[in-house]
Amino acid sequence: MTMTIRTPLRTLTAASLLALALTSVPAGMVHAAPNSPGWTKNSCTAAGYAWSDKLGCAFRSCGHNGEILEPGEVRSVRGKDGKVTTSFCDGFTGRMVDVLRPGTSGPTTPPPTAQR
Q1: Is the CB of residue 20 less than 8 Å from the CB of residue 97?
Q2: Residue 38 gets which letter from DSSP?
Q3: How many CA atoms lie within 13 A of 4 on its CB side?
Q4: Prediction pTM value
Q5: What is the total count of domains within the chain?
Q6: DSSP summary character for residue 109
Q7: How far apart are CA 110 and CA 97, in angstroms?
Q8: pLDDT tens figures, 53-109
Q9: How far apart are CA 17 and CA 100, in angstroms?
């Protein structure tokens, strides 16, 4: 029973963290120029990626601790001090963005590139 509940809860948690990160940055902080050569809104969304009229297609994967993560994937890492940092792959930049850091009570503000 635990295994069947754990997987959907993990997916829901990851989706919730991503949604919080994407909606918590003011729109004025977003860079104006899309950086998605070859992608259109239709081809981007048909491939399952997020699209932003300002940033283009969120198709970039991220490297994290020796593994390649797809855009939107979330990882939590326990540091040497025992504290956990949770990050997600920002498909617009191809960089991992911390959304929960040790000592915080909620999501941190992601960089402007995470805003759609």
Answers
A1: no
A2: T
A3: 1
A4: 0.56
A5: 1
A6: P
A7: 6
A8: 999 999 999 998 889 999 999 999 888 888 888 999 999 999 999 887 766 665 555
A9: 9
